[in-house]
Amino acid sequence: MPEVNPQSFDKTSGYTIPVWYRAVDTIGNYPVISEPLQVDVAVCGGGIAGLTTAYLLAKNGKSVALLEARELGSGESGRTTAHLMSAVDDRYCEIERKHGKDAARLVAESSCGAVSMIESIVKDNNIDCDFERLNGYLFPEPDKADDVIAREFTSAKEAGMKVEMSSVPFPQGAPKVQGIKFGDQGQFHINKYLKGLADACTKLGVKIFEKSQATLPPLEDEQGPYVIAHGNRVSAKKIVVCINYYWLIFKMEPWRTYAVASKIPKGSVEKNLYWNTEDPYVYARVQDGDDASSDYLIVGGEDHKVGAATNYAERYNNLIRWSKDKFPVPQEVVNKWSGQVTEPVDDLPFLGQKPGYKDVLMITGDSGTGMTNATIGAMICTDNIIGKENRWASLYDPSRMSHDITEFVKNGMEVAASYMSWATPGEISDIEDLKPGCGGVMRSGLSKYACYRDQNGKLHSSSAVCSHLDAMLMWNESEKSFDCPAHGSRFDPYGRAIMTPSCKELSPVDPETLKTKAN
Ligand SMILES: Cc1cc2nc3c(=O)[nH]c(=O)nc-3n(C[C@H](O)[C@H](O)[C@H](O)COP(=O)(O)OP(=O)(O)OC[C@H]3O[C@@H](n4cnc5c(N)ncnc54)[C@H](O)[C@@H]3O)c2cc1C
Q1: Distance in Å, CA 73 to ligand 1 centroid
Q2: Which atom of ligand 1 has the smallest separation from the CA of 370?
Q3: Whether the CB of 74 sits within 6 Å of ligand 1
């Protein structure tokens, strides 16, 4: 088992490694910020949202600095499955029910616009990232008749999507099924795309800094807004926060989601996007292999709210079983990984001006279609900053109120319930029981501690109280992290923040003081 060292999470926010890292292990090699800066726009976060925003702003003549806390792509962008879907996964019938037909039309228009924007960025900058246009198929499981297909077909068509009913082109031997065929979807290799996008940014003069965490929220004085990174003040006319989960804690829920990549014979599965009508849904796509004779079949799903499940092996096994059932071709599992998505309670991301802040903008609540939603966010924020009207801006306005207040209340109650673990026993009863490479939360008196024993046998411990809003953390054995069930912050085994909303490390505790204490 490879050791988790304090640098492991700089590359990607988990212990498991996504398939993308086979071809592109490092997206860039950018310096740590070492001097104060004054720019038009400071962008915080180096995932797809931050890099696309920086690129579009620089193309429009703005001077831009991009600050990334770890390495570019090390957040959830590098852990995606990279479907570029205008066939939104929350479904047009649900968007129509919650927001109305006009909103559904704007969602279709903006999502198609995002795929086209990615396509033109790829073309304009000759980015070799396996971008392809292809069809997407939404289908029901054979034994589960429901009316989703009929409702979604009608709503998607009315929203302006290119849809037709069709049989789903699974390989021979798979059960036959009818579904909705969506035209003009897309896919790419995320790490190749981000690498090309970062290069394009650099050519346009964007100053990119890695291992340069910005202090958030942005501060403001008489000279305007600013952040501090690595002790240096970065002053800007506008600041765009693209750190994935930001600020709107009652409007978003953190969900864990799983993916498996298997080697399959080249061409044995037709290249399309596939996803079913289950809730949560399971989905698949094919990525070119790294050799001439194979492809990768990437299957994902098994989502649950953060902290609601710990049966990681079973979740991967369920995906593998589904993959073999739907695609009966030889499969060799090569990568398994999980990640986190930020689900907005009303199914639309929050893109634009931060409520109450004139010069701060944000891209958050990207959901399971964060590749396209982040790109829409970059387009909206750029238009806002250059003073151009954007017809999608009010739909995605972060200050909007939900049409369905019950979702807000339900989320608030679930968050409150997650604080109950202050009163429950720990996951481990004695720090000495931890085996090398294992961790757990241990109770000692009224407090709980996040404990980890590294491969050399050395113990590490911190407070298990989340540094965001004091919820109690849980150990995630699959990703070797301490995760917050309330708002989704995550910490590496040594207590460093690796997933927002928290940007602050856990309070360290001397493990010696815990050795004699029990549950
Ligand atoms: C398993 C999985 C499958 C998915 N599949 C798809 C899919 O098929 N299609 C799709 O569209 N979407 C998919 N998604 C969702 C999509 O990957 C995300 O929504 C998207 O990558 C989010 O991009 P982002 O740039 O907003 O955030 P991130 O990529 O998480 O980037 C945020 C960055 O901000 C940095 N940061 C944090 N705090 C600070 C700070 N204070 N200062 C500076 N930097 C900071 C982080 O280190 C990180 O690099 C999937 C997600 C997962 C986990």
Answers
A1: 8
A2: 19
A3: yes
Q: Report the pLDDT value the prediction gives residue 418, as an integer from 0 to 100.
A: 66
Res 414: pLDDT: 67
Domain boundary among 287, 313, 340: 340
Q: Which residues pair with 235 in a beta bridge?
A: 38, 226
Q: How many CB atoms lie within 10 A of CB 481?
A: 27
Total residue length of the chain: 519
Which CATH number characterizes residue 27's domain? 3.50.50.60
Span from the CA of 514 to the centroid of ligand 1 (angstroms): 35
Candidate of 243, 245, 296 to mutate for ligand 1, largest count of ligand atoms within 8 Å of Cβ: 243
Residues of the chain with pLDDT under 70: 1-2, 145, 402-423, 515-519
Measure the CA–CA gap between 513 and 461, rounded to whole angstroms.
Answer: 10
- Cβ-count burial of 251 within 10 angstroms (0-12 exposed, 13-18 middle, 19+ buried)? buried
Measured between alpha carbons, how far apart are the two ends of the chain, in Å? Answer: 29
Q: Looking at residue 215, what DSSP letter applies?
A: P
Note whether 180 and 150 are within 8 A (CB).
Answer: no
pTM of the model: 0.96
From residue 121, give the alpha-carbon distance in Å to each of 52, 196, 333, 462: 9, 9, 32, 44
pLDDT tens-digit profile of 101-112?
Answer: 999 999 999 999
Same domain, 280 and 167: yes
Kindly state whether residues 98 and 72 are assigned to the same domain: no
| CA proximity to 43, closest of 66, 72, 77, 63 | 66
Beta strand 37-44 with 283-288: parallel, antiparallel or unpaired? unpaired
| Residue 426 pLDDT | 80
What are residue 232's DSSP bridge partners?
229
Domain that holds residue 301: 90-190+254-340
Judgement on whether residues 361 and 321 belong to the same structural domain of the protein: no
Q: Are 418 and 502 in contact (CB under 8 A)?
A: no
For residue 84, what is the DSSP state?
Answer: E
pLDDT score at 186 = 98
pLDDT of 172-217, one tens digit each? 999 889 999 999 999 999 999 999 999 999 999 999 999 999 998 8
